[in-house]
Amino acid sequence: MKIKIKAFASVKDLCGFSEREFDLPERTTAGDAVRRVAQECGEIIAGLDSLLLAVNEEYCRGDRVLAENDVLALFPPVSGG
Amino acid sequence: MKTIRLQNDPIECAAALAATGTVEDGAVLSFTGTPRRDSAGRPVEHLFYEAYEGMALKEMDKIADEALAAWPITDCLIIHRTGRVDPGQASILIVVSARHRDEGFAALRFIIDTVKKTVPIWKKEVYIDGSEWVSDRV
């Protein structure tokens, strides 16, 4: 299934993309998707304890099961204000 | 009334303040965040803000709704800059109006504290000789 992955701020720099489509097996979780990105873009991503995840613009945990056309966002702790 | 916005252009703070509040209100309170000139002794040229725009607007909207439900405030405005923000400019403006100041102060405090915790916006400090995402240090 096709999943769009977005990366922001320092995580974007580590991944080397701001938005990319991935073809992942059915029932893939957000955590699995992070490990897939890590395989391709550098292991450091998978080791980031502080990595935050969102699916379709809502915060989620690593065990969230993804569905076709979901948009998964990966980013560091926020620092706005 | 609720106003939620992300913008690249400088925030017109005086105009936003003047437009917030009703004749029923006795207090219009604002918080303005501005870049510091130095960070741990290192001179900061300017800040650069990146936002996950769709989600940031949703999260800001949720915060405003929570504040409007939790305190008797009438207006709530949250504007955050994106892109380059120079020292002396506002990176964020929050304005609330209320009949009385106590609830306004409480709501204002809640809004800025929650924005800093949940809204997907990141600042990068840009120095003369490099730059650094602030969240890298967390």
Descriptive overview:
The complex is a heterodimer of chains A (81) and B (138). Chain A is built from 2 helices and 5 strands. Chain A is α+β, with helices and mostly antiparallel strands. In chain A, strands 2-1-5-3-4 form a 5-stranded mixed β-sheet. In chain A, a hairpin with a 2-residue loop joins strand 3 and strand 4. The longest helix of chain A has 12 residues, at 30-41. The radius of gyration of chain A is 11 Å and the shape is globular. The N and C termini of chain A lie far apart (37 Å). Helix content of chain B is 31%, strand content 38%. Chain B is built from 3 helices and 10 strands. In chain B, helix 2 (53-70) runs antiparallel to helix 3 (101-118). The longest helix of chain B is centred in the middle third of the chain and has 18 residues, at 53-70. The model of chain B has no long low-confidence stretch (mean pLDDT 94). The chains are: A alpha+beta (81), B alpha+beta (138). Chain A binds chain B through residues 6, 8-10, 13, 50, 52, 54, 57-59, 73, 75-81, and chain B through 33, 49-52, 54-56, 58, 80, 91-92, 112, 115-124, 133-136, 138.
Sheet/helix structural class of chain A: alpha+beta
> What is the subunit organization of this protein?
heterodimer
Radius of gyration of chain B: 16 Å
Mean pLDDT over the full residue set of chain A: 92
Number of distinct beta strands of chain A: 5
Low-confidence stretches of chain B: none
Largest sheet: number of strands, sense, barrel closure of chain A = 5 strands, mixed
In which range does the helix fraction of chain A lie?
10-25%
The number of helical elements of chain B comes to 3
Radius of gyration of chain A: 11 Å
The largest sheet of chain B has its strands arranged as: 1-6-8-2
